[in-house]
Amino acid sequence: MNAVEPVGLVRLDDTDLVLARSEDDVRGVTVTDSGGEEIGKVSSLFVDAEERRVRLVEVASGGLLGLGKEHRLIPVDAIVDVTEEKVVVGRTRDEIAEAPGYDPDLKEAQPPQYYDELYGYYGMSPFWSAGYRSPNYPFR
């Protein structure tokens, strides 16, 4: 893949942006794998600042009182269903656990190759690539 900076991708919690559609805000919702096993909770959303659309969900899992939690970013394209109670990722728990990790405490942006690796891992074209078509997220 060609390492291209995903222009305008921001963590929603770090901005004063409002999503284009309020129903896209799934922060705090439980995330399950394709078999229904709980993965964690949506802790934040990464949005395309220009379109104010969710492009990645940040999922936090494990840990005690916030310590030792693991974080993963999951492209919305990998999400197969969203209800009031859960977000379902079309991958197994093991596949999600093996995805590139994400450190929310890093002050600088992730390098562009991280996003290429992330989308490549899930076998998807990134949202900034030519001809990309956004899924009908959040499916509700």
Structural class by sheet pairing and helices: mainly beta
Q: Roughly how many Å apart are the termini?
A: 32 Å
Could you please say which CATH topology applies here?
Photosynthetic Reaction Center, Chain H, domain 2
Number of helices: 2
CATH superfamily caption: Photosynthetic Reaction Center, subunit H, domain 2
The total count of strands amounts to 7
Helix content: 10-25%
Number of domains: 1
Mean pLDDT: 83
CATH class: Alpha Beta
How much of the sequence lies in strands comes to 25-35%
Radius of gyration: 14 Å
Oligomeric organization of the protein chains = single chain
Inertia-based shape: globular
What CATH architecture label applies? Alpha-Beta Complex
Mind describing the biggest β-sheet? 7 strands, mixed
**SSE topology string:** EEEEEEEHH
Organism: Kribbella amoyensis
Pfam families: PRC
Protein name: PRC-barrel domain protein
